[in-house]
Design a protein that fits this description.
Layout: H1 6-20, E1 24-28, E2 30-33, E3 42-46, E4 50-55, E5 59-63, E6 78-80, E7 82-84, E8 91-93, E9 105-108, E10 113-118, E11 134-139, E12 141-142, E13 145-146, E14 155-164, E15 170-171, E16 187-188, E17 195-201, E18 209-215, E19 235-241, E20 248-251, E21 261-263, H2 266-270, E22 287-288, E23 323-327, E24 333-335, E25 341-343, E26 351-362, E27 376-381, E28 391-394, H3 397-401, H4 403-412, E29 438-449, E30 453-457, E31 466-470, E32 490-499, E33 513-517, E34 522-525
Parallel strand pairs: 1-27, 28-29, 31-33
Antiparallel strand pairs: 2-3, 3-4, 4-11, 5-10, 6-9, 7-8, 10-26, 11-23, 12-13, 14-19, 14-26, 15-16, 17-18, 17-22, 17-23, 18-20, 20-21, 24-25, 26-27, 29-30, 29-32, 30-31, 32-33, 32-34
Amino acid sequence: MRVKSPAVFVLVALLLIAWSAEAEVIKVTPVQRLTPPGVEPAEWECTHGWSIVTNKMGVGKMMVSGPAYCEAPYRPYVAYELENVGSTNYPRWVYVKDAFGNPIPKYDMGRGAFYASCDRYYGQDGNTGKTPSTVWLGTDQHAGLPLAGIALRQIKTAKYCTFVSRNPTLLKPGVADSNWDSWKEAWYNPRQPISLQFLVRHPTNPGLLVQFWYRPWGNDAFIGDQACDGRLQIWEEHICIGPDSRGRWLSPPDWEGQASRAFNSWEELLNSYRPDDPQKVPFKDYVLVETTGDYPNGFKSPGYKGNTEPPGRPYCTGTGKCLNFEVGARFYRFFLPDGSQRTWYPESLGFRGQLDHFVLEIDRNEDGDVNDPGESAVYDFEPPADDTGPRIVYLNQRCLDDRNGLDTLLEKLGEPDDIHDPAQNPYLDTKESRLYDVLFRISGRVTERFNPYFTLDDGAGLGAVTRVYTLDEPNPNTWIPYNFVNPGEYWTSWGLLERFRPVGSQPWVLKPFIMWTAKTHNRQIPEY
């Protein structure tokens, strides 16, 4: 083991102090589930005014692990220094190294982070009254003080870090099911990370509500940048408000005549106003709203329209609170005010990702700085201290080959049955992709080795071999997973188990199981 010099230790310590000293660090943990299991929308209460709401099988949890169970190449929940890479027009994490070649972290975000997944959409068109999965993390407090009544002009800094898994999610249009396993050519990835949202009202006319969304990727009003491969499987910092801010702020249509709008900067947003406001009050004077009850009397609902499940309006939020982080499309198709439509759900279908290190600074007394008590905070999202992490269960391929056997196993592990009508869900294999808190280990002989994966056969003589994808990032300029095994060797691997999700006629038994994992979770073993 190499010993670092004192200078290196000092440098690392100074980097860590730099982020922790900018504001009070507040640890947010879940404390109580407010709805019974199986009831949706599902709601959890967290500390410091935060809450989690999920709808239509969305998953939102404070977790010690994530979508590939390796959130950085070197250790979980560490983000590295941010620089521009090559000719790309966006910044991303690269690995600034010390004298020994070890990466120097910019943020150490603790033991865990907030994790979200959106695996499902319901309904085949815009008239079914069904909504996709959504996940919300919201608050009505800041450093122990209420957010209600704070004007947008008083918010001086808002930035946070996200991680988006590289798990493929959806076949691209025109790709036949027979080509489903082409890693790069066949699949979409999620097109937006978890986004920040504010709900505000006119300062003198409370009936004029506006919701602003920060969209980190791309300039499209609803579907984000499709060329996002280089932004997957890394921690990325999003500076929404403040120096060096990036991304785009949007407001959705309100279905009462207000078209969707996009703002090139926070400053442009602050100096704009609603066209239907005769007073022309700029948005900088709009204030964050008070937490209210459920729709229709309040705005607490994950629904987006009157015929979604549950009903809602564009200004509704899943938590009913004025500051939210959210992922999920909220409706199958997005109806624009001019009558045109966008298929909205591919943006977040299959999303798996995380959020942490949220920095919020508010000049409450408007004295020109954020140095007074209660004005600056860094939110660190962590699981409870007694959370030991997901279970690792040994599994054999005979169980995978037997659908009833797998169902029985999942029920024994506490995985609930799918209460939804499968006729509304083109992805019939719901249980496999909901194993967010149960990991599986499988061992066997390597029978195939391709660039992104290798296959393991445990000798059961069945067709249900398992593909193992290692999603570590060995090179910041490439996104394709890499391999380290040879055919004929014996390996044991553990990670997240599921099936790919192509829609089509091929029966589920023809699709092998996939294990998403990290290189450190694979170990070569003697022949058995």
